[in-house]
Amino acid sequence: MRDAMMASKIWGLALIIVLLVICEAASRCGIIAPNYVPPVSIVIQHAIALCLSGVLPVAFAHTLLRVLQGYGYAVIFGAGLGIMMGYFPLLSRAFTPPIELVRPLPTAALIPIFMLFLGLGDRMKIFIVAWGAFFPILLNTVYGARSIDPILIETAKTFRFGRRQTLVKFILPAASPQIIIGMRLSMPIALILGVTTELIAGENGIGFFILGAERTFHASDMYAGIAVLGLVGYALNWAFRRLERLVLPWHNPQR
Amino acid sequence: MSLTTLVSHRAGTGTVLLLLATWEALSRFHIAPSQFFPPVTTIMAALWSLTVSLELVQEYVVTLWRAGAGFLLGAAAAIFLGALMGHYRSIFNLFEPLLEALRPIPTVALIPAAILLLGIESRMKIFIVAWACFFPVWVNTMESIRSVDSELLDTARTFKFTDPAIFVKFLLPCAAPGIFTGMRISLAFALMLSVVSEMVAGDTGVGHFLITAEDAFQIPQMYATVFSLAGVGYVLNWLFVTIERRAMPWHYGVPRSQGFHEVL
Q1: In which region does residue B253 sit, left (phi positive, over 0), alpha (psi from -120 to 50) or beta (all else)?
Q2: What is this model's ipTM?
Q3: Of the candidates B117, B214, B227, which has its C-beta nearest A116's C-beta?
Q4: Global pTM?
C-alpha cells in the first residue's frame, strides 16, 4: 500500500525536479535573466543562510505572533458568540442583521480604515486578522449549535440540567466539530491577512521582508522568503489536522 | 440569503437602523471623533458625488477588468487541468505534488515576485487574480469529476463515445454544480486580490483610490469606497448565481449542500 503510494508520487516529484533543473539551467545560461529568476541552487543557499542568520526566523516570529493573537481572538469571540447565538434565538435575531451588514465588507479594504484608528503597528494588524478569521468561525459555530438534535436538549431539560450546564455539557461538545471546521477555514485566511497587512503597512514580518527584498532587487532573498512561507503554511495546516485528531477523536473528517 | 434575513427579521432591521442612527448622532454631536467617524449621511453624500462624477466608476472599470480577466483565465485553466486530473489517474499523479506544493503559499506573498517579473501594471494584477482563482476551481472540479457515477461512464463507453465526447457530454455537465461552487468562491477572491494588488503597487484602480483617500485624509471618500466594494461584491455574487441558475437548469431546485460558499 505504502509502496503503491510512493510509486504514484514518483512521477509528480520527478516533474518538480525537472522543472527546478530547467529553471536552474536556464538561469545559469542566461536564457532567463538571473537577476529576475536566480538559479534554484542560489535561492536554496540564500534560504538556508537567512534561516541560520536568524533573519527569517525573526520575520516569521513577528508575523506568526500577530497572526496567532488575532486568530485567538477570533476563536474566542467567534465560538463564544456563535454558541450564544445558536442557543438563544433572540440574540441571534438581534445580531444577525448587523453581522450580515458588515460581513460582506472585504477585509483587506478595511485595512486603511483601521490604520486610521489603530495606526500602522501591531494592534491594527492583529485586529485585521481577528476580523477576517472571526466570520467563518462564527457562522460555522452558529450552524453547529443549531443543528443539535432537539431531543438532546429536551433530555437535558428532563434531567434538570441548568442553562449553563446544558451549554457546557451538551451544546459545546455537539457543536465542536463544526467549530473546528470554522477554525480550519480561518487559519489560512488569518495567515493571508497577516501577510497582507505587512505588504500595505509594514515595519517587520515576512510580508515586509518579501516586499523589501523585491524593492531592493534581492530576488534570491525574495524567492527564499516566499518558499519558506509556503513551507510554514503547509506546516500550519498539517499541525491543525493533527490537533483536530487529538481534540476530536470521535469526529472523522472526510480525509 | 443575507438580504432576505435582513428584511425578514424586523427586530434585526431595527438594530441596524439603531446602529446607524447612533453612529450618525455620535458623529454629529462630536462625541466620537468626527474626522475619523464621519456621519453616515456624509459618507452617503460622498458616495453619491463620487459615483455621479464617474471618478469612482472609472476606477471600477479598471479593477473589474483585471478581476474579470484574471478570474476567467484562472478558472479556465483550473477547469481544464482539474477535469483531466480528475479523470486520468496518470495526469493526476504527474501534477498533484507540484500543485499541492504551490497551494499553501498565500497568494498575496506572490505579489512582490509578480511585480519583479511582470511590472506593476495590469498584467501583474491579472496574473495574481488568476493564480488565486485557480485553486478553489481546480480542487472542486477534480473532486466533482471524480465523483461522477462510474456506471454512467461505463454506459458511455459501451455506446462507443470517444474520450472528448465523454468529457463534453457526461463528465462536465455532471460536475458542473461542483465547478460552479469553486467559481463562486473564486469570484470573491478575484475582486479582493485585484484590490489588494492595487493597494500594494500601481496608480490606478479602486485599491489605489482607497489607499490614496486614506493618505490624503479624505475620510468620507474612504468609507464610501469600502462600502461600495461591499455593494459591488454583493452584486457580482448575485449576477453569478443568476448565471449559474440559467446555465444549469437541470440543477435548479436541488438544495445546495452547506459548503464553502455559505462560509466565505
Answers
A1: left
A2: 0.85
A3: B214
A4: 0.86
